[in-house]
Amino acid sequence: xxxxxxxxxxxxxxxxxxxxxxxxxxxxxxxxxxxxxxxxxxxxxxxxxxxxxxxxxxxxxxxxxxxxxxxxxxxxxxxxxxxxxxxxxxxxxxxxxxxxxxxxxxxxxxxxxxxxxxxxxxxxxxxxxxxxxxxxxxxxxxxxxxxxxxxxxxxxxxxxxxxxxxxxxxxxxxxxxxxxxxxxxxxxxxxxxxxxxxxxxxxxxxxxxxxxxxxxxxxxxxxxxxxxxxxxxxxxxxxxxxxxxxxxxxxxxxxxxx
Length: 258
Known about the structure:
Protein name: ABC transporter ATP-binding protein
InterPro entries: AAA+_ATPase (IPR003593), ABC_carbohydrate_import_ATPase (IPR050107), ABC_transporter-like_ATP-bd (IPR003439), P-loop_NTPase (IPR027417)
Shape: globular
Keywords: ATP-binding, Nucleotide-binding
Helix content: 25-40%
Strand content: 25-35%
Number of strands: 15
GO molecular function: ATP binding; ATP hydrolysis activity
Pfam families: ABC_tran (PF00005)
CATH architecture of the domain at 7-91 and 163-257: 3-Layer(aba) Sandwich
C-alpha cells in the first residue's frame, strides 16, 4: 500500500453558470484501498467524478496523480494517467460479446485485421485475475448476461488498461442480494490487487462491507474523509444529511474538518 494518495484533489471549485456545485473540495484515493464517496442527491458526487474523469474542466483547484501535479483537460488525459470510470449506465453494447465490449474503441489489430486471439487472451486473463467465475464464455453476448455479470464485465473492461484508479458509480444499485455480494467481492479484490477504488454508493451496508475510507459530501463541500473503522453507520448518515456529526464535519458552514 502506498504512503501517499495516488489521486489527490485540492481546493476544487466547479460552477455551472451562476450555480456553484463544488466548494473547495479536497479528495484523496489510495492504492490498495476502497474509498467510498457518499452524499445525498445533489451533494456533488457526480460532478466530482466527472472532474476526476476529465469530463468537466475544474474551475479552480489542483489535481495530483502519484504525487505530481497534473492538468486533466479531457477524458483521454484521465485515461492516460490510469483513471477509469464505470458509470451507472455501464456503456455496454448488448449486440456485442464480452471480448468485443472490453475492447470497444481500443481494438487490437494485426495489420488490417482484428487480432481476435490477443484480445481473447487479454480478456480471459483479466477476468481470471479478478477471479470471475460467473461468466460461461467470453464470447457470450452481453444481452444474455445478468445485471451482476454486466457489472463485472464493465469493471473488467476498466481494469484491462493498466488502470491505477477505478471509479465505480453505484455498481450494486440495480442488483439483487446474491449479485450484490459478487460485485462487492470483486470491488474488494480490485483494491487487494493494488488499485485505488472509489466506490459511489447510497447503500451504507455496502460502504461498511468493503470500504477502507469514507468521503462524505454535503451540499458540494467535503464534510469529512475518514477511515471507515473510525466512524459508525449513524455518524456517516449524519455527515450526509447534516454535514456534521459531533466533532466531525463542516464547522460553522465555512471549511471542513475531518
